[in-house]
Amino acid sequence: MWRAWRCGRHDHNLSKVYIIKPIFSKGSPLTVRLVFFALLSIFCMLVDAHGSWLQSLRSHAGIILTPIYWAGDLPGRSLDTVSQLLTSRSDILAENERLRADTLLMQRRMQKLATLTEQNVRLRELLNSSALLEEQVLVAELLGVDPNVQTHKLLINKGSRHGVYQGQPVLDARGVMGQVVEVMPFSARVLLLTDNSHSLPVQVTRNGLRAIGGGTGQPGMIELRYVADNADIKEGDLLVTSGMAQRFPAGYPVGVVTRVERATGQPFAMVHAAPAAALDRSRHFLLVFAEGHSPQAGSADARDEMAVEAENEARATEGPEGQL
């Protein structure tokens, strides 16, 4: 009897010790839970907007979510692989011949560009100007697109471990894409030209007119702000980076003017342009390193990519004999 009483007392104490009181009681309505989590979300957003306390948490979350982005992109990669395997041999041969012809044309253009570059260097030396240096670049690949329709952002597969930094210019094969706005260890977010919050200084190649190019929030359209009503600008003018803000190197294509509207009595004209870069189709990008930044500060993979790019560029300058 004494032993039974002790066991019962022991069981009673264990029940007291292991009872955990839940946050919500069983009778709590769903509305109370919804309001609680909504207030918690608003609190976290306010803390993130007015401070940097959650930056380390976001960085660690980026490390955890990177494999998820890779897994989400896996079906697209698989479809691309299958489509390449199903391509007929005749299509491959035809594409190979077309690429050979394009290579010969590009080699001819490169020979002319090499001559012009050499002449330009000599003129800069005569004017006691600083020597023209080629920017260092790093190749990145698309991981995902921001699902928020109000913002135009991309996620790429290069981060701080590769030397990527905030504000770094991003280009594709056709022109300027945007700039890096958030850096994580193995990935980064890129703000596109068409986003409302993006702007950069541009210049008209025809006459040197300078302006500020800003996003409109609409895909495939940017606008030139504060252009005088009597300014010499027209449809078809090519816009390039002016280099005035010392963030985007000068001379990179930005877009082509598509519409110019001048209203009577208005001090500024309404100028719209189409971006030169394929913002909605490009999967590979170039991260341009400004002076003082280098991919050498990143991982060994970044250095390997720079070496491969330098070797390819050297082969491209050897002429037709070196390529064929």
Under CATH at level 1, the class of the domain at 199-275 stands as Mainly Beta
What is the total tally of β strands? 12
Shape: globular
CATH topology of the domain at 199-275: Thrombin, subunit H
Report strand order across the widest sheet. 1-2-5-4-3-12
Number of helices: 6
CATH homologous superfamily caption of the domain at 199-275: Rod shape-determining protein MreC, domain 2
Distance between the termini: 100 Å
Outline the structure in words.
This protein has 324 residues and is of the alpha+beta class. It has 6 helices and 12 strands. It has a domain at 199-275: Rod shape-determining protein MreC, domain 2 (Thrombin, subunit H, Beta Barrel), CATH 2.40.10. The strands form 2 sheets. A 6-stranded antiparallel beta barrel has the order 1-2-5-4-3-12. It has a 6-stranded antiparallel beta barrel with strand order 6-7-8-11-10-9. The longest helix has 38 residues, at 89-126.
For this entry, give a set of tags:
single chain; 324 residues; alpha+beta; six-stranded antiparallel barrel; six-stranded antiparallel beta barrel; 39% helix; 23% strand; globular; disordered N terminus
Q: How do the strands and helices of this protein lay out in sequence?
A:
Elements: H1 2-17, H2 30-49, H3 55-85, H4 89-126, E1 136-145, E2 153-156, E3 169-171, E4 176-183, E5 188-192, E6 199-204, E7 210-215, E8 222-228, E9 238-241, E10 253-261, E11 268-275, E12 284-289, H5 300-316, H6 320-323
Antiparallel strand pairs: 1-2, 1-12, 2-5, 3-4, 3-12, 4-5, 6-7, 6-9, 7-8, 8-11, 9-10, 10-11
